[in-house]
Design brief:
Blueprint: E1 3-8, H1 16-30, H2 39-43, E2 57-63, E3 66-77, E4 80-88, H3 97-111, E5 116-122, H4 126-133, E6 138-139, E7 152-158, E8 176-179
Parallel strand pairs: 4-5
Antiparallel strand pairs: 1-2, 1-8, 2-3, 3-4, 5-7, 6-7
Length: 182
């Protein structure tokens, strides 16, 4: 069993299983709660270029060549990357894969010059809330009240310590494979 990271684009055919499963999961949890079109509309809200270097990136986690997870980030502001679509395959959860993805995305965002991470998750995703709180993210909402009153739950994390003086080189902006054994 070999896990690798692949930086690519949302248009990569290997991304389709991740996106299809995200749509199914979000629709199962939220239906049309946020909008009449459901999860597909949310996932298609941003063009592929939003998740492309130099301002963003799109990551897949592959196991023996098969997509088992992924995530992305895009430009939020000059010093902040916004994480989106962090996901692991439903039958492979509780193995630390989401944490691996989160750590790799943080490192890549820092390599691309970002100092802070911002992200949101939905109120019906307690596993995601736990993931972020257990990995150094600060909740930007009152965690002691029913999360449904907020609907969207924002978090932030400072990542300046990861690569404070790094500026991306041309080779960093190309799709690449990396070993996922962190």
């Amino acid at each position: 069993m070999s896990d690798t990271f692949l930086y690519t684009t949302t248009l990569d055919p290997r991304a389709k299983p991740l996106i299809d499963e995200l749509i199914f999961e979000y629709d199962s949890r939220y239906g049309t709660y946020f909008n009449a079109e459901g999860a597909a509309a949310e996932l298609n809200r941003y063009p592929p270029e939003a998740f492309a270097p130099p301002h963003g990136n799109f990551l897949l986690l592959l196991r023996d060549g098969e997509t088992i997870g992924g995530g992305a980030f895009k430009h939020y502001n000059e010093r902040t990357a916004e994480f989106k679509r962090i996901w692991t395959r439903h039958d492979l959860r509780r193995q630390g894969l989401a944490r691996k993805l989160l750590v790799e995305l943080e490192l890549q965002a820092a390599r691309q010059g970002y100092q802070r991470i911002y992200l949101t998750t939905g109120f019906r995703q307690p596993e995601a809330v736990g993931l972020y709180l257990n990995n150094g993210y600060t909740a930007l909402f009152d965690t002691s009240v029913d999360p449904e009153i907020y609907k969207s739950l924002p978090f932030e994390k400072d990542v300046r310590h990861l690569a404070p003086s790094y500026r991306p080189e041309a080779s960093d902006l190309q799709p690449r494979l990396a070993v996922a054994g962190r």
